[in-house]
Amino acid sequence: MVQEDLDPEELARRVALSVAADSDEVGELVGRTPIGDGVWDYRFASAIKGYEGWQWSVTLYCDEDADTWTVDESSLVPTDAALQPPAWVPWKDRLLPSDLSVTDVMGTDPDDSRLTAGYKPAQAVPQNSEVERTSEENKEGQIASASVDADGADQGTDGAVFRLVDRSGGEKDVHKQEPNDQVSFDAQTSAADLDEAVDRFALSRRHVMTAEARTATAKRWYEGQHGPKSLSTRTAKGKACETCGFMIPLAGDLGTMFGVCANRWSPDDGRVVSLDHGCGEHSEIEPQEESHLWVQSQPAYDDLHIDVVRQKPREERPEVELMEQMESEDGSED
User: What domain of life (predicted)?
Assistant: First the structure.
């Protein structure tokens, strides 16, 4: 819409009035702001109920050569004083584990902060080059690595360098073996130990959990219903899962706090439990002694008691007389 010989403020007000449902919903001019290249933003106060702090925004374009004003757009926009909904939260962050069924698939993001790259076996390399082998993360979030110089490996243990590699790629020497060092490290034995650790903790997977993720998992398990604060723990008479014969230990750092219950009669069977958790099915709890005394409980339905109900006289029960009359007509009774 192009207007000539019209005040731009009046033009902007007309546009706001044409958009509003009622003329009382457009208030006074709040201000005008140049956006650039001849574009101006006119703001009017909003008087709509429930839209306190909002403003009518009308964008105009001024063609100075033609001395005309053109309406670009109009809208109702919030200010800092407006009541607005909370920030949008992604649906994956709003979900709870209880919201998912067995057929739902969440998927894992490629940059999931709970995972880190797993162990990659070393490949054959030319002589005089380093072979970097990475094992599991330690508890401080660093990655234990062993770098072995090919020449040093041929000479036994000379030249072996053991260091910690953090996430940023920085390296910290832990021990560098010298030929006359009293502490001897066999490079081949170290490699075998590393392979054993990889097999034991299944670190050959493409991704493994980070130290932060394992810490969050331990906190969630420990504070849950299979931790020390559950009702079953308070009724376990001091018998903790740590001393139960049905508890299967876990490998790794989580094994210092948790195990898996394998008692078929326990409500925690097949679940991860804390070592200070407990239930009434501990392997060291003896069964109750059988009593030779019979304790009769109150029956749910007493079929031995007879209730005597006084009935009305026969003459006052016409249904009885009717039944007797029908039996007499059929000849079933004399």
Answer: Bacteria
Element (H, E) at 195: helix 187-200
Residue with the two structure tokens 């925690």: 268
Helix (H, G, I), strand (E, B) or coil at 74: strand
Q: Which residue has the tokens 């401080």?
A: 140
Residues 191 and 154 in one domain: yes
Distance, in Å, from the CA atom of 41 to the CA atom of 56, rounded to the nearest integer, reads: 10
**Residues pairing with 31 in the sheet:** 43
Distance CA 253, CA 226 (A): 18
Which of residues 165, 184, 208 is at a domain's end?
Answer: 208
| Same domain assignment for residues 181 and 244 | no
**Mean pLDDT computed over 285-296:** 72
pLDDT in tens, 193-248: 777 877 777 788 888 889 899 999 999 999 999 999 988 888 888 889 999 999 99
Which residue, among 172, 174, 181, has the nearest Cα to 152 in the 3D structure?
181
Domain assignment of residue 141, given as a range = 115-208
Strands across the sheet with 143-149, in order?
Answer: 130-137, 143-149, 160-165, 171-176
Is position 141 within any domain?
A: yes
Please provide residue 120's backbone torsions phi and psi, each rounded to the nearest 5 degrees.
-115, 120
